[in-house]
Amino acid sequence: MKNSNLIQILKTFSTGEIKEFGEFVRSGFFNKNESVIKLYDYLRKYHPDYEENRIAKEEIHRKIFAGTKYNDAFIRKIIFNLTHLAESYITYNNSVQDPVDSGITLLAELNKRKLEKLFTKHFTEIEKENEVSGLKNHVYYRRKFALEAQWSNYSDNMRYKVDLHDKKEYHNERTGEKLTHFVNYFLFHSMDTYRTLKYQGYVDRFEYNDELLDNVIEYLLKELHESGTDGKSKYTGKLTLRVYLYEIMLMRDKSGVERLASDIYFLKLKDMLRNGSENLLHDSRFSLYNILLQHCANRIMRGFSEYRTERFVLDKIALEQKIYMSRVETEFPPPAFASIVRDACEMKEFEWARAFIEKNKGSLEQTNFETVLNLSYAIVFFNEKDFMRSLEYLNKIKPVKRWEFKSAVKEMTMQVFYELSMFEQAYYLVDSFRHFQSSMSRNFSIDRIESRTNYLKFYTRLLRIKEDPDNTELENILNGLNNNSILIFNRDWLREKAEELKLK
Fold it and tell me: Exposed/middle/buried for 330, CB within 10 Å: 0-12, 13-18, 19+?
């Protein structure tokens, strides 16, 4: 029973909600079954932990239906009924907390019942509520369209009661507004979804293109070019939509060879994140932060090291604005934690990195706590060139649950083995890493596979030279590492090791 739908829902209830749910269950309108009320009263005593031995079906039956023979079908039935009531309660709760959407539902009913006076009264109230409900995103425009659609229905109901001929122009304008709201809703929602799909191409083996949306993007770029960003343009004057447009353009071509100064969309988006944050919803800023980080990672793998500085600046903005996690998350996301430590250490900000770890480790997600903490300290010691201490922390990481950390731990351990001239272990790990890459080839993005494959290639060649010095191949290796047209993970470290071998 512990993993049943009912218990999973009840565990999400606050103390106030579980009490209010009891009133809901006892309401004769929603429930007339006394057995269901008894089940609620019994379960409430064990909220929120619901110990397994207390909520077994047989134990429930023994406690609340003492003296009767156990009937599994009966118990299942009342559990099902209470689950249904719990689902109805959270639906009701949501409608109470969202007065605009519930108000639109009310307007539809008032229209259906032809209660015109009540309709006009509530329409004005709900329209005002939508205006103060938050930023103008796809939800706002969906509601605006729904409100205008209800107004159109109201006008149809009134057409034989009032002479609307002299108001035809006014009603045509409202119909035009309805279409504008729908187009805005389409643009906001489709562009948001499209840029999310484009982002998946950074991390997964996935690419999505749509001819219709590509044509829409070209239209928006033309409007932006002709109207500018002063807010007068019909669609691109809206900041959020402009952000979506720039994000898509940034992710369209990841193979460019331009340097930071020419990276127009990156610079625009970074400025929007830093200076336009109060006009963007939290999750829009969270997504923008991650898109910019992935872009920096792509540029770094192409050899443009100045993006390391940019990545650390983005981390500081994210910490300041608390956008290193999404709105629904309550604990520090493990990948973000380790990445911020890495970015600081690559900028030689070791004290900053240590202070960050100590300040934020208490809010780390617990499932991966030990892995992330040990990896973070391994990163700090590695960049301080204390390779033995780094290896000590890496050896503490067992087992690794998430694939991101499996990859990160292998990659860092390979670097430590190289620095400590542990050749046998290094060759073994190279082979293990190749098998890991192969097993994940269906999941990893093409860019990730290419960058790690090239990393292994150059790493192995440098390892052989270090083990048995022969500088005849070093110039070819350095030429390859300076080629910006290919993706190479850890390119800067590989180049540093090649230069060291050249000096020797």
Answer: exposed
Alpha-carbon torsion 173, 174, 175, 178, what sign? positive
Q: Residue holding tokens 């390859």?
A: 480
The 8-class DSSP code of residue 277 comes to G
pTM of the shown model: 0.82
- Amino acid identity of residue 322, one-letter, is K
Nearest to 164 by CA among 178, 172, 150, 148: 172
State the pLDDT at residue 161: 62
For residue 11, what are the contacts with CB-CB under 8 A and spacing of at least 6? 48, 50
Q: What is the DSSP string of 363-413?
A: GB-GGGHHHHHHHHHHHHHHHTT-HHHHHHHHHT--S--SHHHHHHHHHHH
99 cis-preceded (ω within 30 degrees of 0):
no
Determine the straight-line distance between the first and last CA of the chain, rounded to whole angstroms: 67
User: Can you tell me the distance from the alpha carbon of 466 to that of 418, in angstroms, rounded to the nearest whole number?
Assistant: 9
Distance CA 86, CA 51 (A): 20
- Across-strand partners of 332? 364
pLDDT at residue 337, rounded to an integer: 96
For the chain, residues with pLDDT lower than 50 are: none
Give the model's pLDDT for residue 118. 94
**CB distance 195 to 204 below 8 Å:** no
Distance CA 35, CA 60 (A): 11
> What confidence score (pLDDT) does residue 160 get?
58
Residue 167 identity (one-letter amino acid): K
Residue 141 tokens read as 């425009």
| Cis-peptide into 335, omega within 30 deg | no
Q: Which amino acid is at 303?
A: G
272: closest CA among 285, 283, 290, 287? 285
Instruction: List own/partner pairs for 16-21 with CB under 8 A and 24 or more apart.
Output: 17/93, 18/44, 18/47, 18/48, 20/89, 21/85, 21/86, 21/89
The residues near 376 (Cβ < 8 Å, ≥ 6 apart) are: 337, 338, 341, 353, 357
Longest dimension (CA), the chain: 97
Residue 381: count of CB within 10 angstroms of its CB: 20
> Side chain identity at 478, as an amino acid letter?
L
Determine the residue type at 353. A
pLDDT of residue 230: 55
- CA atoms of 448 and 202, how far apart (whole Å): 8
Contact 130, 121 (CB under 8 A): no
CB 296 within 8 A of CB 340: no
Instruction: Give the list of residues 6+ apart from residue 378 with CB closer than 8 angstroms, or none.
Output: 390, 391, 393, 394, 397, 412, 416
Is residue 147 within 8 A of residue 107, CB to CB? The reply is: yes
What tokens does 221 get? 């770029």
- For 418, phi and psi rounded to 5 degrees? -65, -50
Q: Which residue has the tokens 């890495």?
A: 342
